[in-house]
Amino acid sequence: MPLPSDRASAARLSSFERPAVARVLPFALFMLLLALRGAVDDAGLDGRWIYGVAVLVVGAALVFFRRDYVELARGSGPTLAEAAAALGVGLAVFALWVRLVEPWMVLGEPSASFVPLDAAGAVIWPLVALRLAGAALVVPLMEELFWRAFLMRWIEDRDFRRVDARRVGAKALLLSTFVFVLAHTQWLAAAIAGLAYAGLYRWSGKLWVAVIAHAVTNAALGAYVLLTGQWRFW
Question: What is the distance between the alpha carbons of residues 191 and 184, in angstroms, rounded to a whole number?
């Protein structure tokens, strides 16, 4: 029979694990599903629809864990000034993202480019709708919960729940941004974006401010891609 101290330790471990899983699992599912695209293409199927599957699966995971996201609870929304800052930063990151494309600013090629065109060159609008919904709604929530709410604070303190984002140090901010950069081919643009979103979270103490900025960037980028046909940014 476990001793009372053992039960208390197990309870603390369990209470830590669920908050961590709630922030890590949606991101892990998203990355896993996107990694399967190559296998789907090799099987003779249209792997582009995997993105839609990922959006639905991750969206369901976010809904399932919604009560665990205390950073997004009612009353944690931005003030007017914070929302304006998020809008401005999001648009600035977008403007830089489409310009920081010199060869030395890019590492490798995207593992799964997304071109929503059929064989005749016509736009497949259901694919576009899924991509926009994922990029502007699901991905900002998923990524900010993982990169900033979890990883940045976890680097600061393994019990990340007790970390006030406004007290995060430079080490945690820079290391989490470095890992964020590794997930993107446009390393310089990703570094600026990661620092900008993390900076907003640290400045305001509200994850919603970073989420809104990230969503603005992705929505503006989606509109730009559709208007210009520069699918490389997708």
Answer: 9
Whether residue 90 lies inside any domain: the answer is yes
Q: How many domains does the chain have?
A: 1
Q: Residue 89 is which amino acid?
A: V
Structure tokens at 174: 């820079």
pLDDT tens track for 14-49: 446 999 999 999 999 999 999 898 788 778 788 899
Distance CA 170, CA 195 (A): 11
**Which residues, 6+ apart, have CB-to-CB distance to 99 below 8 Å?**
none
DSSP letter at 98 equals T
Q: Which of 33, 210, 49, 200 is nearest to 114 (CA)?
A: 49
**Which pair of tokens denotes residue 93?**
């990151």
**34 inside domain:** no
Greatest Cα-to-Cα distance within the chain, rounded to the nearest angstrom: 69
For residue 180 the two structure tokens come to 């964020």
35: in domain = no
At residue 135, the 3 state secondary structure works out as helix
The residue among 123 and 12 whose pLDDT is bigger is 123
Which pLDDT tens digit goes with each residue over 80-112? 999 999 999 999 999 999 999 999 999 977 656
Q: Is 164 inside a domain boundary?
A: yes
180 is in which domain, residue-wise?
72-233
* pLDDT > 90 fraction of the chain, expressed in percent and rounded: 82
